[in-house]
Amino acid sequence: MPKPSNRINGILPSGKDGWEVHFAAMTRKEAGEPIIMLSVGDHDFDTPEETVEACVRAVRGGYHHYTQLPGIPRLRKAMAKASTRCTGIETNSDQIIVTPGGQLALYAAVQGTLDKGDHAVVVAPYYATYPGTFRAAEAEFTVVEAQAADGFQPRAEAIEAALKPNTRAILINTPNNPTGAVYSRESMEALAELCVRHDLWLLSDEVYWTLAGEKHVSPRALPGMAERTLVINSMSKSHGMTGWRIGWLSGPENMISLLVSLNLVTTYGLTDFVSRAAAEALENDYGVKVIADIYNGRRTLFLDAVAGLNDIVVRGSEGGMYVMLDVSAIEPDDEKFAWALLDEEKVGVMPGSSFGEAAKGHIRISLCQPDNVLMDAAGRLRRFASSYRKAA
Ligand SMILES: Cc1ncc(COP(=O)(O)O)c(C=O)c1O
Question: Is 182 exposed, middle or buried (0-12, 13-18, 19+ CB in 10 A)?
Fold first, then answer.
């Protein structure tokens, strides 16, 4: 075959990617071992029935055609309303572009703000696709670690120290995957002040906003930020629609109209019947409260179950779908810990170091299992933690 582009070869560097424990757990589960998978972030339940029915009606109703590139008007309106609630600042349809999932919103945000050779700062621990998304734009990035000791809150001074003359954007994620940290108003204000002072874009990934109760603070509503913030949103987590691939980006009208050209050459608009179902789901908040209650309940249940465990410290874990546990007092090598937990207790978790230096010595627990399974896993973790100490 002729030579592929350097760009496509460069998106994912080869070698170890931190998902080895997860894939081993999955293979062993498929082979019949009673493994509890706490490594993935996809719901253990299906999309709400009302949304499914809305989609079936739309398919039967003949919604099979091309749609407007930035999204059908009804959907953009519903997303604008959701953005007003998510960010706390009035948002209109012209400030919205629909995308197939939050990932494409992220891709569009990076493509829209960074040229080849431009620089961005990414706050870690971060979601696994971030580095590849910058590489796809041939942009450089510096990772700035939010510290475990700070509950994984980002520090504006550390971010400012990483800025370069060609820095154009900062990417953050709150509520955070993998740490579950919900960035405080104080952290957001310091970051916003820095973005205004250095004339930077702020790319704010808020796909877990409904899973943080009242605590979610969007930087878009802060002074001077509406003109420089692009918010990544998705229906995957909030509406139980991971496989439907529906998300959106909100930002200044001028940037949104420029991004329509990206849709023209990539997705050419969103699936017609999916757009109709998504609009109905947003207009009626199908599943939103039930799903938020499920994760809030599971988080409390699991954290209560591990609260009494000596040598395990909970960090972040305030919102979203994950809990982050500091296990370094038991075993500083989190990968070793995760492999041993899988071998001895048949629980699959993600080693924290898969998400960068700051999460070293931690394990990430996904809450995408029913209460009884999470309680079983907490019991296995308890047994493992005490026997591991004895053996050491
Ligand atoms: C922080 C974060 N951002 C974006 C995404 C992408 O979500 P979507 O399924 O909407 O593409 C995910 C998915 O897990 C995520 O965890």
Answer: buried
Class of domain 6-46+288-391: alpha beta
Beta-carbon contacts of residue 241 (< 8 Å; ≥ 6 apart): 47, 51, 235, 278, 281
Residue 101 in contact with ligand 1 by CB distance below 6 A: yes
> Which residue numbers in the chain have pLDDT < 50?
none
Atom of ligand 1 nearest to the CA of 103: 11
88 CA distance to ligand 1 centroid (A)?
A: 21
As assigned by CATH, the class of the 65-284 domain is: alpha beta
Model confidence pLDDT, tens digit, residues 324-368: 999 999 999 999 999 999 999 999 999 998 888 889 999 999 999
Domain layout of the chain by residue ranges: 6-46+288-391, 65-284
> Is 182 in contact with 212 (CB distance < 8 Å)?
yes
Asked whether 206 lines ligand 1 (CB < 6 A), one says: no
Nearest to 46 by CA among 253, 328, 243, 338: 243
Strands 247-250 and 96-99, by their bridges, are antiparallel
Q: What is the DSSP string of 354-379?
A: GG-GGGTTEEEEE--S-HHHHHHHHH
Q: Which atom of ligand 1 is nearest to the CA of 104?
A: 11
Residue 343's pLDDT is 95
Residue of the CA atom closest to atom 14 of ligand 1: 41
Which tokens go with 173?
Answer: 């994620």
Q: What is the largest CA-CA distance in the chain?
A: 65
Q: Determine whether the shortest distance from the Cβ of 320 to ligand 1 is under 6 A.
A: no
Is residue 26 within 8 Å of 37, Cβ to Cβ? yes
- The span from the first CA to the last CA of the chain, in angstroms, equals 53
Ligand 1 in reach of 207 Cβ (< 6 A): yes
The sheet that has 229-234: what strands, in order across it?
96-99, 247-250, 229-234, 201-205, 167-173, 119-124, 140-145
Q: What is the DSSP letter of 317?
A: -
